[in-house]
User: What shape does this take?
Amino acid sequence: MFYFLPREALKNWLSEISKVHEVFVPVSPSGFGPYEGKLYLEKKTKLSAKEFFLPWREVILKFEARPGALPSPVFFEPVKERIIFGVRPCDAKGLTLIEKVFGEDPFFQKRREKTILLGLLCKEPGRECFGWAMGVNPFAGEGLDALFLEQAEGYLVKLLSPKGEKLFKDQEAFEKVGEEAQNSFKKAEKEFLEKHPKAPALEKLKEADLLKLYEADFWEGLALPCLNCGICTFLCPTCYCFDVQDEVVGLEGERVRLPEACMFELYSRHASGHNPRRSPVARFRNRFMHKFKYFLDEYGEPLCVGCGRCNEECPAGINLWEVIRAMSTL
Amino acid sequence: MIPYPARIERTVVETEDGLLKSFYLRLLDEEASREFSHRPGQFAMLSVLGKGECPIGIASAPSEKLLMFTVFRTGLVTDALHRLPEGTIIGLRGPLGNGYPLEKFKGKNVVLIAGGFAVTTLRATLVYLLEHRADYGEITMIYGARNPGLLLYKPELEAWKKRDDLKLYLTIDREAPGWDGLVGFVPQITEQVAPSGENAVALVCGPPIMIKFTLPVLEKCGFKPEDIYLSLENRMRCGLGLCHHCNVGPFLVCKDGPVITLAELKKLPPEY
Assistant: This one.
């Protein structure tokens, strides 16, 4: 089902639905925020919508800080249904990849159920984007409830899920459109896919031998500039590792889930001091083996959506493609 | 998963240096206590609110009433645990992990090889095997510690020595006054005992150096890699296969392990 929204009507519509739902939009090149009139839609934001589902700090238990106290579980329950508008298709696809692992986690599930994701197709690929090479078809809108395609006069909206259909059923600002509009969408999709095919590297990676990849000698050279700073994991829409810490202030304690990066030395250090991945090279190798071999073998897709944020922000100038190329041409 | 409250019913200092303590726990909720059912080889996350959690192998057999864990005092959480008096309530999340596939061992000879305090889950396994003695062939246990003071479960070892349906070999690394048993490292004793790999499985738990030298001995005795079982350890956080801390290549120790055969281990990258 397709709808059409005239360009001038977008902001009004966002204001209208803000009265009934909590609405989040990209407010600046940095990331998302509640809709208060400002909107940034030129390019994808630095932070993806990952934080709405895997928040930076998630309390899972509350307790009194004394020996023998019993914990009280905490379950986050979004008060109102949330709508996140302006999510890029690559970020939404990242969410479906995370869901393969977190599908049964109650915290992730509750947030997912109470959130409606409205996607926005990019006008053109960003400088470092390569989502199509990773098998992401932005026009398919995986993970989204509706997808907006910007055209000359306004936005063509494709509904993708029952949640999306329910939302748009009574929205007066949107008019239903017929076959001609659907065809223009399909044409845009066809043109895109012809110019941007999936990378053959993925098939080669599936067939590569795990231990041979692990013992390859290109890892040292590629990992040498890496500072193990973790920016790539922080910005990545598919990285999901978390740490669990007990935080105590005075007599009140909380057990929280925090973001964690496999690039840190503490990530795999045992209490005895032994560390299976003591060297920075080992940790660098582990991250890419996980994304492009272990996950690929288990789920058939790489744990990467080609958003290119890691390439843009890496302070050491490491380019993901060099790693993928080295891994797939072994 | 939320930690179940559990009371420390009893603590026993197992070793002379005081670093190993056994905790006997009872789940507060009676229904949870009745329904808790684990397999030897599985572990649980012991939770000290305010400090954190640590994964500890379950050293009690499924039939025993209290859940027993033997904890080595080495880090933040284990140190806090050691300082708790009997009667304190801590948290427990479990059972986690895969445990030993004991059904596959029926009708076979079972060789348990333990070094140091890795004997904890093998104790659970041995108690279970002895309870179902008729299902298994010859049971051999080789258990070594650095010195007599570091042997765990000393009263039980005395009782097991007297049994005639179990071959128990206790050894210490170097001569010590008052010890008239075997002397030698576990791999050397294993070579002397030379259990046959014919229709047998070997369960090996111990420090990496001991495992490194014991495996060639087992190979010489005819054990196939699919019949040698090891137990991996790694830093953990969630214990549920989500946070990915404990991965050894594609293998998550908390979810796919900790028990793994040597055949499977050879396919994994050597990062453990």
Residues 119-131 of chain B form the longest helix (13 residues). The interface with chain A takes residues 2-3, 5, 48-54, 74-76, 78, 84, 88-91, 233-235, 237-238, 241-245, 247-250, 267, 269, 271-272 of chain B (CB under 8 Å). The domain at 102-231 of chain B is CATH 3.40.50.80 (Rossmann fold). The CA atoms of residues 13 and 21 of chain B lie 4 Å apart.
